[in-house]
């Protein structure tokens, strides 16, 4: 099997310019690939790690004059059938949890945004194995 799907590793906090650059890169890549292949299927792997886990927080408020990265990633994921995996350890340590982990760790609630999924680092390892290019933002 030849690795072909690029991997976009997001580590920047949503307030950092690199987090916005990653979204612009992903959008441009997916639009370009969809136009060439005449398909909407994802040709990009994405993984949220470290401070980028804040992007998956559905309680993160954004003023109207700023890009809401959470909603923009959700829209991109829906349009291109893109998975939005988030490292479970870095998410939990930043106060982002889904229902299962909230129950398991006796937390008071969950705030994982729709479309995002908490996963282990093995997911990242498998993506790296299947990728020719790794870009970190």
UniProtKB/TrEMBL annotation:
<keyword id="KW-0808">Transferase</keyword>
<comment type="similarity">
    <text>Belongs to the DsrE/TusD family.</text>
</comment>
<dbReference type="InterPro" id="IPR027396">
    <property type="entry name" value="DsrEFH-like"/>
</dbReference>
<dbReference type="InterPro" id="IPR003787">
    <property type="entry name" value="Sulphur_relay_DsrE/F-like"/>
</dbReference>
<dbReference type="InterPro" id="IPR017463">
    <property type="entry name" value="Sulphur_relay_TusD/DsrE"/>
</dbReference>
<keyword id="KW-0963">Cytoplasm</keyword>
<protein>
    <submittedName>
        <fullName>Sulfurtransferase complex subunit TusD</fullName>
    </submittedName>
</protein>
<dbReference type="Pfam" id="PF02635">
    <property type="entry name" value="DsrE"/>
</dbReference>
């Amino acid at each position: 099997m030849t690795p072909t799907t690029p991997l976009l590793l997001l580590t920047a906090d949503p307030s950092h310019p690199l987090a916005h650059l990653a979204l612009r890169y992903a959008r441009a890549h997916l639009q370009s690939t969809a136009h060439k292949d005449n398909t909407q299927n994802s040709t990009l792997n994405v993984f949220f790690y470290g401070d980028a886990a804040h992007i998956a927080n559905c309680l993160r408020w954004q003023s109207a004059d700023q890009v809401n990265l959470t909603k923009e990633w959700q829209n991109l994921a829906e349009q291109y059938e893109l998975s939005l995996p988030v490292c479970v350890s870095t998410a939990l340590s930043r106060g982002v949890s889904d229902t299962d982990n909230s129950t398991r760790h006796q937390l008071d609630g969950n705030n994982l945004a729709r479309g995002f999924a908490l996963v282990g680092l093995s997911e990242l390892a498998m993506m790296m194995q299947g990728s020719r290019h790794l870009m970190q933002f």
